[in-house]
Design brief:
The protein is of the alpha+beta class. It has 3 domains: 156 residues; 195 residues, Alpha-Beta Plaits (2-Layer Sandwich), CATH 3.30.70; 42 residues, no CATH class. 56% of the residues lie in helices and 19% in strands. The chain contains 13 helices and 10 strands. The longest helix is centred in the middle third of the chain and has 51 residues. The chain starts with a helix and ends with a helix.
């Protein structure tokens, strides 16, 4: 609207100075009516053809500018002023093709106007000073106000950008908090768009792990709730680190029990998933010996031991529940079988099904426990007891452990640094000498 007003003022100055005759008043009226009409047209276009609003309005502006140039007898001052106004508006959209489109339509409009008003350009020295002053002053005001408006928009965009950045940071913080309630693999698959948060599940071959602490409820009845909470926090922290190390998906914590599965949402194949699952269980059993020593230092008198069960088979895995509340978990016979194997295990024992044994037997040494009947399982189940990694059995054993009342030794030779070797040997020799010299009644 401001551009049209400036153009109208240029023609008004020309009429006032006698440069144009009275018929040029029609051009002034044209400059007043067009922007009002374009406002209604814009609203209609935004409703009907929202993607063509800018192009259509520029076509009209360009044609109107060319027509006005011809009506002004191609006088250099009005011509340059009108073209400057048009191209300034076009450049505000920041695309080269828009500027070219505006220039082309202005040329077309000037040709149409030329056929109506003639092609006799008025020389520059014939342009009144009043028209020059109005044209230059109007164009300066227009450019200045456009620059001010653009700066205001830029400042608004900066404010909006900062607000978006703050919201993104808040969303990141919230997502990190929410991630603690989900297995990392599940959280990553949802936020990467690989998995939708809707009720859906698939049938997959999984290795399922279930564990609990033997007689934990009975032993902790006499403990303070704070001590029990501290014990469980330490236990779950260590077990979670080991599970994530091997790529397990932590399903849930149930009291002191843990349900973990391998094979979804990330899988390395049934064989490697099974090996990773059993390897995790062996490391957890070793970690329990370290935890027992820490619990003793916390004032826990009776030793706590873990029991574990593992099976491999087909389960339904995915989102179960309803649209307002769902849980990513597994359902199936083998999920129940892992729990039953855990119930049948002795302290610090890892029991696995025959399906799991067939996949891990070349890496893991197992001892046959025979066919047993498990509660809730219709058919007898062939059960195997996990001994250790084959590489850690016999003369190749790298994990040395011994535990008696008043004595506990845990050593992983693979983790001993060369520069610590002599220090460890001296510490063992010093401890052995003190034990020899100690008279025990």
């Amino acid at each position: 609207m401001l551009a049209y007003i400036v153009a109208g003022c240029v023609f008004a100055a020309g009429i006032f100075s006698g440069f144009y005759d009275k018929t040029a008043i029609g051009i002034i009226l044209f400059a007043v009516i067009i922007p009002v009409a374009l406002r209604f047209l814009q609203e209609w276009l935004e409703y009907k053809f929202p993607t063509h609003v800018v192009t259509t309005l520029l076509l009209i502006d360009g044609f109107a500018a060319g027509f006005a140039i011809a009506a002004g007898s191609f006088s250099i001052v009005p011509t340059m002023t009108i073209l400057g106004l048009l191209l300034t508006a076009a450049m505000a959209f920041g695309q080269l093709y828009v500027i070219a489109l505006a220039a082309f339509t202005a040329m077309f409009g000037s040709l149409v106007g030329g056929f109506l008003f003639g092609f006799d350009p008025i020389p520059y020295n014939g342009t009144p000073a009043s028209m020059v002053v109005v044209a230059i002053g109007g164009f300066t005001i227009y450019v200045g106000l456009c620059a001010y408006y653009i700066r205001q928009q830029a400042e608004s965009l900066i404010v909006a950008k900062n607000q978006i950045k703050e919201q993104q940071e808040q969303a990141i913080q919230v997502s990190r908090q929410l991630a603690k309630y989900l297995a990392p693999q599940v959280w990553e698959s949802i936020f990467s768009g690989k998995r939708a948060a809707k009720i859906q599940n698939n049938r997959k071959k999984l290795s399922v792990f279930f564990s609990d602490i033997k007689d934990f409820t009975v032993m902790t009845d006499e403990m303070s709730p704070d001590l029990v909470t501290e014990m469980l926090a330490l236990y779950f922290d260590q077990m979670t680190k080991i599970a994530l190390k091997y790529g397990g998906t932590i399903d849930k914590f149930i009291g002191d029990a843990i349900l973990i599965f391998f094979g979804d949402p990330v899988t390395q194949g049934a064989k490697q998933d099974a090996i990773a699952c059993v390897s995790m269980a062996i490391d957890m059993r070793k970690a329990m010996q370290v935890l027992r020593q820490k619990w003793v230092s916390m004032g826990v008198e009776k030793a706590l031991h873990i029991r574990m069960g593992i099976t491999t088979g087909y389960c339904h895995v995915g989102n179960f529940g309803c649209e307002s509340r769902m849980d990513y978990t597994i359902i199936g016979r083998d999920a129940n079988l892992a729990s039953r194997l855990q119930n049948a295990a002795e302290v610090d024992e890892i029991l696995i099904s025959n399906d799991t044994y067939m996949l891990v037997r070349d890496k893991i040494m197992c001892r046959e426990k025979g066919v047993v009947r498990l509660k809730g399982i219709g058919e007898p189940v062939q059960v195997w007891q996990v001994v250790d990694f084959r590489s850690d059995v016999g003369e190749h054993q790298t994990w040395i452990e011994h535990e008696l009342d008043g004595f506990a030794m845990l050593m992983d030779i693979n983790k001993v640094k060369n520069y610590d070797k002599e220090r460890i040997v001296k510490a063992l020799e010093a401890a052995a000498q003190r034990l020899r010299n100690k008279r025990i009644v």
